[in-house]
Give the backbone structure.
Amino acid sequence: MLQFGVCISLPHAREALEAGFDYVELPAQLFKGQETQADLAPIKNLAIPVTNMFFPGTMKLYTPEGRTQVPEYTRRVLDRAAAVGVKTMVIGSGASRHAPEGLNLDQAESEFAAICGEIQKLARKYHITIAPENLNHVETNVGNDLAELVKRLEKVHVHYTADSYHLLMEWEDEGREHGRKTPSESFWKHQIPSLPAHVHIATLPDRVYPKSDDLLLQGFVKRLKTLGYKGRVSLECKFADQASELAPALREIRDLFHAED
């Protein structure tokens, strides 16, 4: 059965749960410090099965220093995240995975996938699934094409997150250039080739929450249903007035996914 959550900051987590969301998705960097069990106690009472923002932007993955930091940082974050019930950890981290000038992009894509494979090996003993997400070209230059990212991740036995907003951002220039108003069925089938481990949802323009009749996302939802997706769907969007919009946003995305049921 689908569950609907929202990407949000810790101070607003209870507000989101009270608005009716099944869970909250918080930044993994909450767990990067030297938290004690007492520090984590208030968080344990929240439903936090998923995290995002795995790496801090200051950790550059393709530098010798960054690669050296990854194992210890990862163990620390996994240990603390598992303690509060986290099951899935999304890796976006655009600044960390951005390939610097001079580094071959194909090599960077392969290195990123290899790093994710290393993280998944560490995560396995915590019963946590690592699920890197596609990001758009404005945010980073590695992992923009979800279909290609999935291929590389499959080789290292890592699952993935399908993010509708980033997919739409990548489709927008090419798709609308060819006169299309919505992505084609073949676009969604190509970009989401297999069952994702997790889903992020938002729509154009400006990463807003979708309405139940959002034409841009109908193909996205249909593709997930075709694949039999029954997992978690996290709303990751901008709010004009978060307090008043949380409950309406939840109603809209529920209706979007259940429109054909």
Summary: The chain has one domain: 3-258. The chain has a mean pLDDT of 93. Strands lie at 3-7, 23-27, 50-52, 88-91, 129-132, 161-163, 198-201, 232-235.
